[in-house]
Amino acid sequence: MKKNMSSFGRSIYILGLAGLSAMLISACGKGGNPAETIAASSAAETTAKSAAEGAEAGNAEASQTGDADGKDAAGTSAATELKLPDYKFTFDNFPRMDGSTATVPLAKSVAGALLGVKPEETAELCRFNRTTQSFRNLMNGEADVLIVGEPKASVYEELKAANFEIEVEDIATDALIFVVNENNPVSSLTTDQIRDIYLGKITNWKEVGGNDAEIIPFQRNEGAGSQALMTKLVMKDEAMMAAPKEYVQTSMGDLMTAVKSYDNSANAIGYSVYYYANDMKMAKGLKIIGVDGVDPGTDTIRSGKYPHLNAYYCVVPKDTANEGARAIYDWLASDDGQRLIAGEGYVSIKDIPSANAAAGKTDKVAEALYERLDGAAEGTLDELKVRSDYGMLLPYKGSELYENISAEGSDDPNSYISGYMMGFFDTNGRLVTDPVYNVIQIVQYYDRYTDNMQSLPFYVFAKYDNDMTLPEDGDMWSLPDDKVHQRFVTLDGSFISDEYGHISGCDGGNLLCKPTFEAKEFKLYDKDAGVILDYDMLAEANGESFTAKLDEDYGLTEVGYGEGYFTISLKDGEYFVNEETKKLEFGPYSYIRPFHDGMAMVRYGDMNEANIIDKTGKKILDTDYSEVSTLKNGNIIAGNEKDTYIYDKSGKLIKKLDNTGYFNTTEWGFTTQPYVSKETGYGCAAYDFDGNLLFSDMEGVYSFNSVLPIVTITGDSIDAKADEYNENGTGLRVTNLLTKDSIFIEGASEAYPFYTMEGHAEISLMTAVNYDYDTDTNRVWIFDEKPSIVSDTDKFGPDTYVNATMDMKTGEWYIVAHHSKTNICEIYDKELNKINEVTNYPELIGGIAIYEAEHACIADDVDGHRLFCYPMIGSLGN
Question: Is the peptide bond before 588 cis (omega within 30 degrees of 0)?
Fold first, then answer.
């Protein structure tokens, strides 16, 4: 059984060995042949070799080893700013991308550059389906553009049979490289020698010019991407010799560590992919050897001199009409697209300086700043332990991980998962664990009454098994639940739970833990890490009325809580459980929400009947409605598709509103959507808590805000004085619904509250913005509910984007002004008092700002002083 990683909100795509701190992997590209329209019958001829021949003809070689750190011939950082396509990309119009999982990091960088956001914010656009399936999705119209590795010949046969033609552009290349211990005198082998080593024909290093010592040839597990590359490029389908179990490594990190230090000798050899070389440099204790007299490097890979290459392409349907897909295809082959590719650590097709500086990167690596807990030796802090002197635990990212994973029966060499191994440090600046965990994340839950995510005072931390072959129907975003080993720990480190297969935050602020996602047994922990409910308690209190109704496949997957009652879902419906007696007290219902302010919303039957009950289970309203909710002042609002009713808490009718349509509750009242006409559609009307009309818009031209009592309208929608608008005719009228006071913001085009992924931040301010596509500049204004402008671009500077972020420990909201040109982020409180400044977008935990800069994970305290710094590159043991 596989489990979706959303069990505790794990929106990361990482796979690796517990104990792995860093990876010796790099990505690169090959020579540049021009784009060509390839009919399916001849597409299979587009190989790394043919591409490399074009590159060698068009590019001069600078050096044998090439340049891997984004510098030009003079050794200076390439600082050319990227010129983006003329096509204006948004999240809404972004073409559907697909491809190999190995290309996901590159795809995120491409999408981030085109959208003007951080690469990690584009994860939903880059949920790739592996090489073969991505071509099928393109053919079936389910994808618009691919960023993909070399497919199998059978893929081209499928395309040909469907008479589906494609355009293919070489954009970068991966390479299979070989590593030995740095003390091994052998610096190069031939392909034949490597093949014979793995066939068992060559068994001693002296046979290839080395010491008189047995060769220890490590290899990867079946199904791993690098194993598929080894079979394809070196073994030529000859079977490797059967290896002892300890010679077969299921993780790249395992293999690298084994080659580095197996049996305390320099006799091992292994292989991996050449990726992130410009960041990783060379892992201490290892060296990459040449093959057939050629060292792998930027120029030797680009020219095709290095023998074992694996191409990456951009692919679109022939003569595609999708403007966004065409723009990506053309741009990745342009000088600026190639600069981005080079800046991400790949060897670009064109011999061109990288865009590291334009992407906010530097070649400088920040200096480490931490003490190891109790002076422990390197690599020995491999497990978190309960202690009382941490102060507060905090997460950090270690070296970047680039890990093979494949489905059963798959021979796709382009299946990798990337991310970071993680570890803990504390507020004393001590490194508490080495980066041995695949996941460290504060537990959150969705609070239906605040319409937002809230944090619990726990971290979930997890290690994944290193034999991570997925089921045949698995995808890269799911993992078998028996391969994930997770526990939770209090933020102060004073309590660590047992291992659970499923951990999730629940509405009401408790933590649900189960041995597996499918298990019936569970424990519910409160915020003090005490067990307040479990399977045995419910079974003892309710007998078969609980056990016989529990879902056989999944048990309980959510346990809500509110004001003395748990909420659970059984086979026949949802129930309220008394916190003291643990008995099923009210139910079953079709749907329920936890008690709040002494009331709870419930639904009956086919979900069309809803009401509010009190804590005796009695209906408060005499009539059931299709929709019912509570307002912020405690009144009850109910309605159907035609009329709306306002009641007080006792169920007494306050007002009936005719022909209002459906309603939406807000922080200041509610809005309705009355039907106007076939031509106009639906209008909108705003009311206070007692149902008094505040504003009516039957033309559908105003924008209402759910956070503040504000309504806005753009300048091109209203009849106003000509001098209110600038020469472009833009401007925004902002009106307070309660006081009717208004202001006009000249030049603004739209206004927003401080949105979050789920709802909105608890910040009593709004932003107005204007983005000028012609000049690629952004202006911003911040105003309050009076309304009056409290800050604007003059304070923050041009090209600044203002967002909200929540302190994951305290729940306090802050405003982050992100300067897009420099990547500097200024942190303000809700009154716009500046409290800190960092050099990348931060995560806030207990006032500590954690961010990435200069190839390191950095933490600054509330006063802006450096607390901790962990270089994310450079060794396997750190």
Answer: yes
CB atoms within 10 A of CB 409: 10
- Token pair of 669, please? 């009242």
CA separation for the pair 413, 102 (Å, rounded): 9
Distance CA(492)–CA(392), nearest Å, equals 4
Angle at 684 between CA 680 and CA 688, to 5 degrees: 165
Helices (H), 59-142: 104-115, 131-139
pLDDT (0 to 100) of residue 261: 55
Pairwise CA distance, residues 799 & 780, whole Å: 9
- Per-residue model confidence as pLDDT tens digits over 325-372: 999 999 999 999 998 888 777 788 888 776 554 444 445 778 999 999
Q: Which amino acid is at 206?
A: K
Tokens of 332: 């990745």
Assess whether the previous peptide bond of 787 is cis (omega < 30° from 0). Answer: yes
Statement: the pTM of the whole predicted model exceeds 0.90: no
* Strand ranges in 469-570 using DSSP code E only, listed in sequence order: 478-480, 484-490, 502-506, 510-514, 523-525, 531-534, 560-562, 565-570
**What average pLDDT does range 789-795 have in this prediction?**
89
CA 124 to chain centre: 8
Query: pLDDT tens across 701-744, in order?
Result: 888 888 899 999 876 544 443 344 444 456 889 999 999 999 99
pLDDT of 615? 95
What is the DSSP secondary-structure string of 534-554? EHHHHHHHHTHHHHTTS-TTT
Pairing of strands 813-819, 523-525: unpaired
Residues 133, 136, 137, 140, Cα dihedral to 10°: -160
Q: What is the mean pLDDT of residues 146-153?
A: 86
Q: What is the pLDDT of residues 536-572, one digit of tens each?
A: 999 999 999 999 999 888 899 999 999 999 999 999 9
Secondary structure, 3-state, 813-855: EEEEEEECCCCCEEEECCCCCEEEEECCCCEEECCEEEEEECC
Tell me the two tokens of residue 563.
Answer: 């004001």
Cα atoms found within 13 Å of the Cα of residue 852, Cβ hemisphere only: 15
